[in-house]
Amino acid sequence: MTDTDTTETPTPSSAAPSAATPSTPSTPSTPAPRSGVRQMLPSMSGKLLAGLVLIGAIVLFAVVGPFVTQDPRSSANDAMLPPQAGHWLGTTSLGYDVLAQLAEGARGSLVVGVTAGLVAILLALLFGVVAGYLRGWTDEFLSLVTGIMLVIPGLPLMIVVASYLQVRSLWVVALILGVTAFAGPAVVLRSQARSLRVRDYVSAARVAGEKTPRIIGVEVLPNLLPLLASQFLFAIVLAILGEAGLSYLGLGPNGSITWGTMLNEAQGGGALTRGAWWWFVPPGLMIALFGTGLSLVNFAIDEIVNPKLRLAPAAAKSVREARKAGKDKLGRRATGSHDVAEKERVDA
Amino acid sequence: MKFYARRIAFYAVTLWAAISLNFFIPRMLPGDPFSILMAKLQRAGGIPAGTENSIRLLLGAAEDQTLWEQYVTYWKNVLTGNLGVSVTNFPAPVTELIGDAIPWTLGLVGTATIISFVLGIGLGAFAGWKRGTWVDSLVPSTTMLQSLPYFWVALVLIFVFAVSLQWFPIIGAYDVFHFNGPEWSWAFVGSVLYHAFLPALTIVISSVGGWLLGMRNMMVSTLSEDYVTTAEAKGLRPRRVFTTYAMRNAALPSLAGFGVSLGFVVAGSLVMEQVFTYPGVGKLMITAVRNNDYALMQGVFLVITLAVLAALFLMDLIYGFLDPRTRHHD
User: Fold this and answer.
1) A-contacting residues in B 157-186 (Cβ below 8 Å)
2) What percent of chain B has pLDDT over 70?
3) Which residue of B220, B308, B309 is the best one to mutate when testing the A interface, meaning the one whose CB has the most A CBs within 10 A?
4) B31 touches chain A (CB under 8 A)
5) Which of A114, A154, A179, B263 lies at a CB distance of 3.0 to 4.6 Å from B312, suitable for a disulfide?
6) How crowded is residue B96: how many other Cβ atoms within 10 Å of its Cβ?
7) Which residues are registered as beta bridge partners of A87?
8) pLDDT range class, residue A338, cuts 50, 70, 90
9) Are B18 and B11 in contact (CB under 8 A)?
10) CB under 8 Å to A76, separation ≥6 — which residues?
11) Helix (H, G, I), strand (E, B), or coil: what is residue B62?
12) How high does pLDDT run on average in chain B?
């Protein structure tokens, strides 16, 4: 829902593609103007750092976890043990170690999420960027397909397709999730590509006789990178949530462990009624934390795509601080007007 | 006028595509649903020949007809409102089962969506107004709410409030031990509200963050517009600038989003209904999937899609009226 209109104003310095993002007021730490590539990268903030740490920790857990925990399918343990030494997250009703399942499930969920995200974003590139750039009948057709996929409810469609497939591998589930999720990103990318296509430097490339694939690849695409990245991250979150939903209903990948299948087994094994919170809380929490991490990174990217989000709060803050400082200087003022100024400050 | 003509044409094509998709999905995918279903029915006892034929037609196992003939028959059935017969609740027609389920979903998800929207817009406008203050640091925490799998929220709520504290019922839409079926009495309405509280809370918790964030971001953008600065410079009261200048304009994209979510109310929260065993459309669809009741499953899918299309079409027309700019774009 970011305001795309802000980017439609033609930038005065037309030639350099990097001019798409207005230069940021340089922070004290980086006095030199940021170079083209640096401008595309989000500036380091608390939000971004927290997001990267969350993502990094969970990916590390998925990569390393399965090697240091026990076999997630070993039922040699006692059933329904609460968290304790040796079983940090307890065991399930079949004696599986929850921590081991969580680590293995992290692999499954991340593989599905990233694969589905890639599929969705590649389709979105075709249906969004190509449609937005080419216009005409190609655009009409591609947009129609996007529009149809956008309004056909995704989860019911996934359920119908998945229920006809008796054997579902991790990859098939990821493919279904990706194909049903491309429409949203495609719409966003299309509107941005449409606004980029009328920029002077794109027109210049066209007049210079550049081939269409080259213009899309070299002139248009680099300016879509922040948007593309944020849409990709969103697609991953949606795919992981979608997989969890499908798996919870028993329509997820057969034979694999994901966070969703854990929730399904927890429901089936009566974790709720038997009070085994250690069984169903961790998988959902992992999904939420991973999603939060990706969203936090998205925040940082959003502030590049829509500079107002970064500049406006900063401006409001500096106005407020200036007013505060001004008030301090005019210490001669009566205390009555001090209250008025204080009230104004609160209202602003 | 061109705007409306284009929208109508788009929805006509989408309608055709959705109904055709429903026809082709069982035929395109591998596997042999027909044999599975027949074996299941044989075990449960024989079925009349007419039902077998309609199932053959639905699943593309009618060898004596060409694909085109099957397609034409399928359209005839859809247009006359004949979606086949459910196998789970044999011999109830699919349309009847769906008709019974829709009010529950509409009532629950519709109300929860409206509550969530109003709450999110209000909080988002406030957060945007207070940009650059401590409120900004609270905004990212709303993404946590958005990333929660909503059916997991439902599980946790059940665990805390229904199993541990026993404040609320675990399943159902009303007290089945007191009432034989829906009736018009205060006691029944009370029971429905009591049972709907946790499901509604689930929906509000998992969707309010999105409204809040979208509204906050639009509010921040709008507040940096020149006309807002002018309004402030004119010395208008902050309250007036907030409501009539900033909030009204910032709410437009959220209103469009609200229209879309109202459209998807019938598609509802499928998995949530399963968790609470709420007798809505989602529960019906999942029951159908579990029992290989393909006629019911596809019927529900079709009805959900049609409802979404109808709602979105209506919303498009209303929004075109609310925000004239959309009529000129495209």
Assistant:
1) 158-159, 163-164
2) 84
3) B220
4) yes
5) B263
6) 13
7) A84
8) very low
9) no
10) A95
11) coil
12) 79
Are A1 and B31 an interchain contact pair (Cβ–Cβ within 8 Å)? no
**Is the minimum CB–CB distance between A49 and chain B shorter than 8 Å?**
no
Least Cα separation, residue A172 to chain B (angstroms): 12
Amino acid in position B132: G
> Which of helix, strand or coil describes residue A84?
strand
Output the CA angle A299-B116-A54, nearest 5 degrees: 30
Give φ, ψ of A159 to 5 degrees.
Answer: -65, -45
Written as one string, the DSSP assignment of B130-157 is: TTTSTHHHHTTHHHHHHHS-HHHHHHHH
Q: What is the Cα–Cα distance from B249 to B232, expressed in whole angstroms?
A: 16
Q: From CA A139, how far away is CA B245, in angstroms rounded?
A: 37
For A149, counting Cβ atoms within 10 Å of its Cβ (0-12 exposed, 13-18 middle, 19+ buried), the class is: buried
Q: What is the 3-state secondary structure (H, E, C) of B168-217?
A: CCCCCCCCCCCCCCCCCCHHHHHHHHHHHHHHHHHHHHHHHHHHHHHHHH
The rounded distance, in Å, linking the Cα atoms of B123 and B121 is: 6
Is this structure's pTM higher than 0.80? no
Complex ipTM value = 0.79
Residue A270 to residue A273: CA distance in whole angstroms: 6
- Are the C-beta atoms of B284 and B151 separated by less than 8 Å? no
Judge: A288–B148 Cβ closer than 8 Å, yes or no. Answer: yes
Q: Which of B67, B73, B32, B30 is nearest to B54 (CA)?
A: B73
pLDDT band at B72 (very low <50, low <70, confident <90, very high): confident
Report residue B81 as tokens: 């409102």
Structure-token pair, residue B137: 């640091």
Q: How far apart are the first and last CA of chain A?
A: 25
pLDDT in tens, A53-90: 989 999 998 888 888 777 777 777 777 777 777 777 77
Q: Which of B246, B259, B245, B251 is nearest to B319 (CA)?
A: B259
Amino acid (one-letter) located at A161: V
Which residues of chain A from 1 to 30 reach within 8 Å of chain B, CB to CB? 1-3, 6
A-chain CB neighbours of B109 within 8 Å are: none
Q: Centre a 10 Å sphere on the Cβ of residue A336 and count the other Cβ atoms it contains.
A: 7
Express each pLDDT in B275-301 by its tens digit.
888 888 888 888 888 877 777 888 888
